[in-house]
Amino acid sequence: MKKLLSHPYTVLVTRVFIGLLFVFSSLDKIVDPSAFAQSVANYGLLPSSFPAIIATVLPWVELLCGFAVFFGVSLRGSSLLLSAMVVIFTLAVMSALLRGLDISCGCFTQDPAAGHIGWTKVVQNTALFALTLFLYFSRTTKFTLVEYLQKSGTLQSQS
Amino acid sequence: MTRLLQALREAGVLLLVATALGFIYTAATEKGLFARPAPTLPANTAGLLAPTMVTRDQAHAYFNSGKALFIDARHDFDYKLGHIRGAINIPLSIYQTKKAVLDTIPKNRLIVAYCDGAECNSSIEVSVKLAKEGYTDVKIFFGGWREWMESNLPIDKSP
């Protein structure tokens, strides 16, 4: 396990995948916060003024964390934040499914024609959670911007 | 433990930056939380025919029919720089002084009012005034000058 956590290529591939995934999923929401707020409101979990605030902030958290994970900057903080978010998203999806709501996810696209939530979403999110947790515990700075800057002497090595 | 604390600190900074960016962006682009409420029109009440919104294509069709009178509700210097071909200028600010011009227009004439585009309300205000004065066929081309220009439709420039 220790070996896997410090394996540079496994960590790199996971970083690129998770990073790009969250950057791309944030774009649609940033372009149309109102549609995303509607998606959030559809879950029926929050008082009326909250979805608009979430739609203002959350896409940017996804974008920043996506970039941070991609470049390996603040990797622990960003992967921790992402895993917490994935847990909250999954709980929201599960509660909607248990209440029998037939709503679209609002996860990657705000297109109302996109498929509706199902238990596959929960499985997908569990896998995502595992990957973000993996990044949190990963122990290599190889192929990160931090490593590059340290090598070039711009950043002082911390360890 | 220090690792978790460091991660939490990083996550906190990411959250703060994302919140700031989210609010700045949505406020600057007037999206989502900061979206302006859609303009509302007075409902059709007895004896008063409320103006209706028309799209660029409809406005163009009215233009081609030759029956519509276009009213430009912008300031006269904007009008002089360019306006929809054949449009007359009745700026909202000096609406009252244009009585003489208005008196020459039959009450049942098809009128299409417009201003700059989505950022202005004067086309709505002018058309509401017209409807109150008894004009029965008033349309608002809300896409306005900007949409007309972007579509390269016929324009005039005053010397």
Overview features:
heterodimer, A: 159 residues, mainly alpha, elongated, B: 159 residues, alpha/beta, Oxidized Rhodanese, domain 1, two-stranded antiparallel ribbon, 6 helices
Structural features, described:
The complex is a heterodimer of chains A (159) and B (159). Chain A has one domain. Helix content of chain A is 70%, strand content 0%. Chain A has seven helices and no strands. In chain A, α2 (8-31) crosses α6, α4 (50-71) crosses α5 (75-98) and α5 runs antiparallel to α6. Chain B is α/β, with parallel strands linked by helices and 159 residues long. Chain B folds into two domains: 2-34; 52-156, Rhodanese-like domain (Oxidized Rhodanese, domain 1). Chain B has a five-stranded parallel beta sheet with strand order 1-6-5-2-4. In chain B, β5 (111-114), α5 (122-132) and β6 form a beta-alpha-beta unit. Chain B starts with a helix and ends with a strand. The mean pLDDT of chain B is 86. Chain A binds chain B through residues 30, 32-34, 36-37, 52-53, 55-61, 63-65, 68, 74, 76-78, 80-81, 84, 136, and chain B through 3, 6-15, 17-19, 21-23, 25-26, 31-33, 35.
SSE topology string of chain A: HHHHHHH
Q: Count the E strands of chain B.
A: 7
**CATH domain class of the largest domain in chain B:** Alpha Beta
Using the CA coordinates, give the radius of gyration of chain B. Answer: 22 Å
